[in-house]
Specification:
It comes from Coprinopsis cinerea (strain Okayama-7 / 130 / ATCC MYA-4618 / FGSC 9003) (Inky cap fungus). The chain is α/β, with parallel strands linked by helices and 250 residues long. It has ten helices and nine strands. It has a single domain (9-194), classed as Rossmann fold (3-Layer(aba) Sandwich).
């Protein structure tokens, strides 16, 4: 989701770290304990989990996997497996859901403002695991970016690249490695800034979304591609700032 092709361009940055999710947070938590700080807080884009679980079940059904034939329980089983992975980590977790203030149209289609039919079941699972839920005023990815930018969460876990455009500074993306679901990509904007050749500003990312096409205008500017917009936007310096704020979750 988000600007098509932008993940592939960003992941070329030498500052992107491919690592074990477990190892990363064990090391991070130990460092925080030594510094008398709270455990790291992860903000999760809840809608991406639902849609990715649905896609996994549909794909399995095409290959006639028996477990995928039971519909909704199979989808919830996929979500449960991912929750079981998070519960093992020394972190606090908040799942952010889309709110009613979302744009009426996205990717050229009218947005359904009614919550996904699995939302209630998903939220019950989240609370049973001792995690937190939060409903955004509008787009969950925009809320997650704001929470990250203001220091209320330390990382955004999502597959939606738009969180960068909204201002997120520390993003975790799970790559498509079916053999190792613990493998993730860590995008830390200050680290990415160190590489001049691929440096981007937030304004540059917005430029890419407008000219190359994104969720809110899929076509972009005629004659532009995401790649060409990226090359032009890369001439700007990547400048970010952080604003302090009290944590809501710990």
């Amino acid at each position: 989701m988000g600007v098509k092709g932008l993940w592939e361009l960003l992941r070329k940055n030498p500052g992107v770290k491919v690592t074990s999710l477990t190892d990363w947070f064990v090391n991070d938590a130990v460092a925080r304990i030594n510094d008398s700080r709270n455990a790291p807080v992860i903000g999760v884009d809840a809608s991406t989990w639902i849609y990715e679980a649905q896609a996994a079940v549909m794909q399995a059904s095409k290959h006639r996997a028996a477990w995928a034939r039971i519909g909704q329980p199979a989808i919830m089983k996929c979500i449960l497996d991912r929750l079981l992975q998070l519960i093992k980590l020394p972190v606090a977790v908040v799942f952010v859901f889309d709110g009613n203030g979302r744009p009426q149209y996205k990717r050229g289609r009218k947005v359904k403002t009614k919550p996904h039919y699995l939302t209630g079941h998903f939220q019950a699972f989240i609370k049973a695991f001792g995690f937190h839920t939060h409903t955004a005023p509008g787009e969950a990815e925009a809320e997650l970016a704001w929470l990250n930018l203001t220091g209320q969460i330390d990382y955004v876990l999502t597959s939606d690249v738009d969180v960068f455009i909204f201002g997120a500074t520390s993003v975790i993306r799970r790559p498509l490695n079916k053999d190792n679901y613990d493998e993730v990509e860590i995008y830390h904007v200050p680290t990415l800034q160190a590489y001049e050749r691929v440096r981007l500003s937030r304004a540059g990312l917005i430029f890419i979304a407008i000219f190359g096409g994104g969720d809110y205008d899929p076509d972009g500017l005629k004659g532009f591609t995401v790649e060409s917009a990226y090359m032009l936007a890369g001439h700007q310096s990547l400048v970010t700032g952080s604003v302090g704020g009290d944590r809501r979750w710990s």
